[in-house]
Structure formats: C-alpha cells, structure tokens
Amino acid sequence: MTSPLHTERHLVIVLGATGDLMRRKLLPVLHELTEAGASYHLLAVARSKDLNDDSYRQQAVEALVEFGRLTDEQATTWAAANVSYGSIGTGTAADYRALRARIEQVERDRGLPGNRIFYLSLPPETFPKTISGLGEAGLNRSGSGWTRLVVEKPFGTDLATAQALNDLVHRHFDETQVYRIDHYLGKETVQNLVAFRFGNAIFESLWNRDRIQSVEITVAESLGVEKRAGYYDQAGALRDMMQNHLTQLLTLTAMEVPARFDARAIRHEKEKVLRSIVPYSPDDVVFGQYGAGEIDSQPVPAYREEQGVAPNSHTETFVAMHLRINNWRWQGVPFFLRTGKRLPQRQSKIVVTFRRAPVAMFGFNDEAVMSNRLVIRLQPEEGFELDFGAKAPGDRFVLKRQRLQFAYKDAYGELPDAYQTLLYDVMQGDQTLFVHADEVESSWRLYAPLLEEPPPLLPYAAGTWGPEAAQALLRR
Ligand code: BG6
Question: pTM to 2 decimals?
Fold first, then answer.
C-alpha cells in the first residue's frame, strides 16, 4: 500500500479487545492503517468494567511496542488520539443498550457520521450470542451510515452449525454487510494466484486437463499447537486448516475465469468448483497424528503430551486428500491437498505438474526434467518457479532441469500483513476477499462425510512429512 488510503470516516468496534488476536495482529495493523491514511476511530470493547480509556490505552501501548515494533512514545501518541474503550459486561440486553449509547457518544465526540465496523475477535462459541445482542440492540443498522460485521474463523464446526450461524447472521444483517475472514485470502501471494492466472494469457491457456497432469496444494507447519490446545484438540486439522485455508487455495486454483473482478463474480466461480467436486472414497483420505520426533535437530514431544491435549486424544494433526473435480476443465486431473503440524518445515505451496511432451525425442531419461512444473510459493520465500528441461553442454543430448524464478522480496521487499489488506477492504466495503455464506456451507458439506466418520488415525513422527500412507497417496 504505497499511495495514501482513502476511507470514509468511521468507527471500528472490536469486540474481544483484550484478546490475543487484538494484541498481536489487529492493533499493529490498525496503527499501520492510520499511518497509511485510513480515517477511523477505534472503540475497543471487552467484558471488564474496570478498564477505562486510559487503562485500555496503556494495554494497547504495550501490545504495540511488543508486536508492532513501535516506540513507547509513538504508541502512546497514537493510542491517545485514536483509541477509546467500552465495556460489554456479561452481554445482557442492558449491556448492549449501554454499548449502543457508548458508540453514539464516541461518534458525537469525534464527529463521526455513523459508519461502523463491528469486528468479532471472540471465541467462536460466543458468536451467536454477540450477533443476537448487536441485532436486538439495533446495532445491526446505523441511522446515518453503513454498518459492517466482521466474523473470524472458524465459521461453524460443521455444516449444521454453519447453517445455523448463517441463519442467525441473516436474521439481523444482510449478506452485503458480512465479512467472513479467512486470512489466507489477504495474503499477497494468494491474491496473486488470481492475477497470475487471469493476467497472463500464457498460463491460462494451459490451465486445463489437456495440459495439466496433477495439482498439489501443501500447507505445512513445523509448529505444534502452541498455546491453543484447548481449541485445537476440539477442532483438528480438517476444521482448522483444510475446510478453510486449503479449500480457498483449491477454489482459486481451479475456478473458471470470472465475468468480472468483483466479489460476486469471484465468489460465484469459487462456489461452482466446490459443487463440482465428486464424492471421495476412504482411500482418498489420510488422517495422522504426530508422535515424538525431531525438528531442526530439536526433540519434539508427541501431540498427546502437549500441554492441554487429552492424553488419549484422537484429534488429527495431519490430513492428506485426493480430490477430483468433475467439470470440463478438470475432469481426470487429481488434486492432492495436505496440511499438518510438526512437519519438517513451514512451507505453503501449490505445485502444478504439466503433462509430458507427447513424444520422447530426447528419451524420458529423467521424469522430473520432462514434466514441466510450476511452483507457486505462498510462504516462506513467496514467489514463483517454473521448471523446464534445457540441454546440458556437451556432445550428448542430455536434458537437465533448470528453473525460471521470481521472488517477491527481490521485487517488492516486505509484504503487508494479510490482516492489513483485509481490514482495509472492510473499510472500503470490498467483499471480494471474504467468504460468502453459500461458500462456507458448500465447503462444510464437502467435508461432512469425514466429520461424521473420520478415517483411521495413523501415526507419524514429528519432523516427517506425515504417515507413509500420505506419501503413497501422492505417489499414486
Ligand atoms: C490459522 C490456524 O487459521 O492459521 C492455525 O488456526 C495455523 O492453526 C495458522 O497455524 C496458519 O497461518 P499462517 O498464516 O501462519 O500460515
């Protein structure tokens, strides 16, 4: 974001303002957005009735110094000018009415026109109560401006809960007001997938079953559950990563050319992909859970020994899947998706393997050389690589694999945080990078058979690429 940002003046109301996401991500990003020119005031809302503007600002300053790399003075100046505090108590109807009064008061004091963003930075089990609370207090509309609602993931825990949550949201808010976050969509490299496909005619003309042999999508993490065992042990890798982040990568990779580059057209094309996926069989899925192992020569305990994990937990920390998309573009092309914790390295990428040349003019001495590969690296070392075969110098005609490469950091330096991109889009009212109600339901529908009847849980050692059966799935 190099040119100054333009937004209508508004109030950002973050519910859950003393939580981890606010401290680590939202406050630093909100500060960046002010610096870049966005025009808003922040009303931080939490349960505590003991906090006030001054004491909350002090907390915000500490977070900005720790996570936003600001000096104490910079953070203090920003917080004094831009941050207020409001309490939601235990969330009774009276508490929501008091919140409404507080919002109106801040708007009057700051001369704001009534444009509002409500950001639910809350544990998912509190979403329904909060959405109803806002709606019943009349905070779903503002008399004089727009109102937008931002909902963090996970949106539901299965199809039924996602449908119920959508119904509740729609009872109070119109879909055009709702911004369901999947932070992967805010990553520059993920957006660039669309630019890459539809801005470069050479690739799009090859992007089909005639030219592509397989597509592999990997989101690997070397970290474990860290301090989130309470949530993760309930969720598992399917809910935590596959249903949202990997599914988004899949739909962006596979979707048809949208009629326009806008939210409606893009979400429609993504949803069509989900509806074209054919039912998978048990052979197409591998669930794993890590045991003790080593990463970067450091010992790593088994998942069941992590703090907060049930000692007999059956939660999957690894999922690999083979999916087939039954449409004209992709019929017969296998899509492999895999994600896991405690894998050897943090690595997210999409690997597109093209079909071999139809005639082996130089001999298919090396499969890797003969199949061109496009690697879209999402993290780390964001960029693209295209592998191709080139003749090695010498008398004999021997091809060696060579690589064309583009690295973001060489061209652009540091990339903006995904949350910064997404929050700015909310401020502008652009829903393109947010998940539509239908899309979230289709995605849960796709994984419903696995939630109802999970496959056997296979062990893998921390620091390996998952259970052997997953490697076999990929080789297949
Ligand atoms: C979150 C998951 O949505 O994404 C985490 O809940 C995961 O478990 C994280 O670690 C990965 O995000 P990123 O941006 O680090 O790849």
Answer: 0.93
